[in-house]
Amino acid sequence: xxxxxxxxxxxxxxxxxxxxxxxxxxxxxxxxxxxxxxxxxxxxxxxxxxxxxxxxxxxxxxxxxxxxxxxxxxxxxxxxxxxxxxxxxxxxxxxxxxxxxxxxxxxxxx
Length: 110
What we know:
Elements: H1 19-32, E1 36-40, H2 45-50, E2 64-69, H3 72-84, E3 90-93, E4 98-101, E5 106-109
Parallel strand pairs: 3-5
Antiparallel strand pairs: 1-2, 2-4, 3-4
């Protein structure tokens, strides 16, 4: 179940996640029909640097989440559909998770 506490920074516990990201993740979770893991939500600059995150990452602004779940193919399909309909700004596809954010409309593979 998607709740705000799942989006806190892994190193310091600060949580500046934007409400719209939480609502987007709730919509994704409802649509896929299984619980999602929030691998990364808000990140402080120290944590973002430590994990090699992008210098201007949407995570730093509280506008992004990295998600995984039991059926990654379905999760990717749902996120791609939401991205196609411009419900998602940034959509990144990775081997074990998907990245969604509220930034400009773009996509990539990591």
